[in-house]
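Job type: complex structure
Entries:
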Amino acid sequence: MTAAVTTAPATVRVRRSQRSTRVGAPLLGLAVLVLAFLPFVAYTTVTSTLVTFFILLIMATMWNLLAGFAGLVSVGQQAYVGLGAYAVLWMSDLGVQPFLGVFLAAVVCAVIAIPTSLLAFRLRGDYFAVGTWVIAEAYRLVVVRSDALGGGSGRSLTTLSELDQTLREAGTYWTALTMVVACVVGSYLLLRSRLGLALTAVRDNEVAARSVGVDVTRAKRIVYLVSAAGCGAAGGLLLVSTLNVRPDSVFSVQWSAYMIFIVVIGGIGHIEGALVGSVVFFALQQALADYGSWYLVLVGLVAIAAALWLRGGLWGALSRRTGIRLFPIGYRVDRPS
Amino acid sequence: MDWVNALVQGILLGGLYALFACGLSLLFGVMRIVNLAHGDLAVLAAFLAYATATVTGVSALWATVVVVPVFAVLGYLVHRGLLERSLAAGPLATLLVTFGLSIVVQNLLLESFSADSRTLDVGSLVSASLRITDDISVSYLAVLTFLLAAGVLVGLQLFLSRTQLGRIVRATSDDPEAATLVGADSRHVYGIATALAFATVALAGLMFAMRSSFDPNIGPSRLIFAFEAVVIGGLGSLWGTFVGGIVLGLAQTVAAQIDPALTLLAGHLLFLAVLAFRPQGLLPARSM
């Protein structure tokens, strides 16, 4: 018995990273560098398309954090998309530069999420999902009542129009890229921390996690706040890239549909899943752009199929087959043969 | 007198919300799931009746007689084909599947019927009303909806509490494995519950479509009203759902009396207030 315990550390290695991580991480870093230089060499159509993609990726990463790791399936994250957009608009009226406003909008949304979570967390599971949706509707109706923010028909962001168009597009692009990196790396670090361990424990068995002292509600609330901040930034980016905001579209449940479909197809509970899902979703959206909303029908059917038959999504299947992990958040036990 | 009128109209509107909500309440009570496609199914029923009435030339009232049973069958098939699998795949899967279904139905309707508003033509019934005093008159359609809601809820309650099949449904809901051991087929039982939920939501969609215009995008707001009625009334309680629907209808019409722009917000705020101060709802369930 004692022999087994003393010899165990010598034969078993516990580690996080593996070869795919050590190869993949520098490649991802390189890709971000290349993307950062893009505005100097590419047309603005390319960068503005990428901004749209980045916004989707941010939202999907945030929803994945919420649903895939904290088990909080929300259909109401559009609340923060909308509030983020309006926060940038409101702050620009006060003289805050809109690119800076995007970062501040994230903070504003996290603050608003604190009282919101007190209400929303009274509901569990399926009821949490619809409850958050009702809360998003309530925020939309409150915003619509403000004439200063343009009421029901929305308003334009005028302070950015003074900038030269090329500079504006580049600024938007860099802001979006910064937010993407912040959201993905932020989620990764968050999930590797003590909190990530707590979330894993909660996911596997909530009662057992509570009994060993995990503060479940606190862990979930932190994730909810982070997710609200990310979605707020995404909303701010929407405003900065389109220079226009309408309450009906920015608070639309379609954002939740996008987030959910992307993550379910890409792989819920895998950071890489949001990335893969965003690429697939964005490609389908662009390819079927001439066919109205048929792409949503198609994506919806694929998502239903993925939820039923491919539960880890595309990335889950790939990772299971090949063992590739770009963002290792768990530990691997290797036993040298 | 305006206020009395608002109260009367609110109660009648509440009947419609209760009718929308009873399918949601039933599915939650029996299977502990929320069908996110609930509102879009109501709209689908309305379009089905619209298409039936347009193609065959029969009155929309007769189309109802066709659409409701079709929806019951559809409900059974959706359960056996989709929900059953998703229940086995975990609680997350059901939400994702019904949400996917919601978006698919919504966009299919959008592509086949366009975003134009339509109404179900029920002839003179839509404008006929009963004058109670000089200021208060109630539309026959609203009264009919209210009575239907009451009838459906009483019927469901009696079905669950008095019939053999209802007892099996309750037993399966309490403990699927034990119920299976004594001979209940849980998949069939859940299928029946889904069929009932689909039939009632079709009825609600049709009653709604007869009194106001509808388009493919209104499904989500129907789901939200139904959901609010269920939570305000108390989860898993059919009587609570009826009361919740009426309270929601009252809140909306009374707020509209103050400022029409407040109608929806008042309902949402009432819902949030119930969450904050009485999360178990007005009439919490003992058991179904």
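Summary: The interface with chain B takes residues 67, 71, 73, 75, 119, 122-123, 125-127, 129-131, 133-135, 137-138, 141-142, 144-145, 253, 257, 260-261, 264, 268, 292-294, 296-297, 300-301, 303-304, 307-308, 311 of chain A (CB under 8 Å). DSSP finds 15 helices and four strands in chain A.
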